[in-house]
Amino acid sequence: MKVAYTGWTWLVNHQDNYKYEFEQFLKEVADIGYDSVENFAFITKYFDNNAEEVKGLLDKYGLEMVNLYEHFSTDPEEDYKKAGEYIDFMKKIGATYLNLQGVMWKDAPFDRPTDEATIKAYAALSNRIGKLCKENGCVAVFHPHAATPVYTEEQIDIFLANTDPEYVWLCPDTAHTTLAGMDAVEAFKKYLPRIGYVHLKDVDPDVNNSPEWPMNRFCALGLGTVDFRGIYRVLKEGGYDGVLCVELDKPLVCNYKSALVSREYIHNVMGL
């Protein structure tokens, strides 16, 4: 399995200095021992779609960009168009996976009733993008995410029932799965045949910590209660040989520290 780290937290508040921050991200994760990286698809805009420049930086630090991450909007045709642009960029830098995610709300309530119509619309769009990915040698993976229409087990089941497994894979996230009330190990067992990519992060079990926005409880690997040994066992025994990508929304100290703590944990617990 490849061990990757996400770079968007280096860039998200530094749009005025993005090229420096992107290279700093690559330099730090390479130093720590990651072999692969992912990033939000906004880097295509930051680099004016100059894939050669991005590929040059990746090569400089001996890293592979495995994934770009597309967030859906309220305009499915625009999302499909952007997916095509991202796929072209991915092919030039050697990336394989296009991660898809529904629109996230940022106001209360955090948990909302299942909106089956929206989930089916996401499934239809994901099928179209997934077909386009396959035609271009890439893989579409969908990320169930808190504060979006596809988050709970019920919602994931509806989404998967309406997507073609030939075109659309799942990217389960250990923390979002846990936050949604699922047993992460059992969820990974259930969805194993559709898993195409994996996000790793831990969860602080204290429900009194940021109850208004529970995603603030996400933390570096080994600092919460997620059973990573059990999840890794399920993946390994099930023949998964893809990417394990650490993605932390809010580093507790700094990006480097969270990446280091998580990489050491993966080495010590998973032997990777």
Brief account:
By secondary structure, this protein is of the alpha/beta class.
SSE topology sketch:
Layout: E1 2-6, H1 8-11, H2 18-32, E2 36-40, H3 43-46, H4 51-60, E3 64-71, H5 76-93, E4 97-101, H6 116-135, E5 139-142, H7 153-161, E6 168-170, H8 174-179, H9 184-191, E7 198-200, E8 202-203, E9 218-219, H10 228-237, E10 243-246, H11 255-270
Parallel strand pairs: 1-2, 1-10, 2-3, 3-4, 4-5, 5-6, 7-10
Antiparallel strand pairs: 8-9
Low-confidence stretches: none
Q: CATH top level? A: Alpha Beta
CATH superfamily: Divalent-metal-dependent TIM barrel enzymes
Using the 3D structure, state the CATH architecture: Alpha-Beta Barrel
- Output the number of helix runs: 11
**SSE pattern, N- to C-terminal:** EHHEHHEHEHEHEHHEEEHEH
**Structure summary, number of beta strands:** 10
Number of domains: 1
Structural class: alpha/beta
Strand arrangement in the largest pleated sheet: 6-5-4-3-2-1-10-7
Mean pLDDT across all amino acids = 95
